[in-house]
Amino acid sequence: MRIALFTETFLPKVDGIVTRLRHTIEHLERNGDRVLVVAPDGGLTEYKGAQIHGVPGLPLPLYPELKLALPSMGTKDIIEKFNPDLIHVVNPAVLGVSGVYYAKNLNIPLVASYHTHLPQYLQHYGLGALEGVLWELLKAIHNQAQLNLCTSSVMVEELKTHGIENVDLWQRGVDTDMFQPHLKSAQMRARLSQGHPESPLLLYVGRVSAEKQIDQIKPVLEAIPEARLAIVGDGPNREALEAHFAGTNTNFVGYLQGLELASAFASADAFVFPSRTETLGLVLLEAMAAGCPVVAANSGGIPDIVTNGENGFMFDVNDPDGAITATKRLLEAQTEREQLRANARKEAERWGWASATRQLQSYYRDIVNPEMLSSAA
Question: How far apart are CA 130 and CA 126, in angstroms?
Answer without folding.
Answer: 10
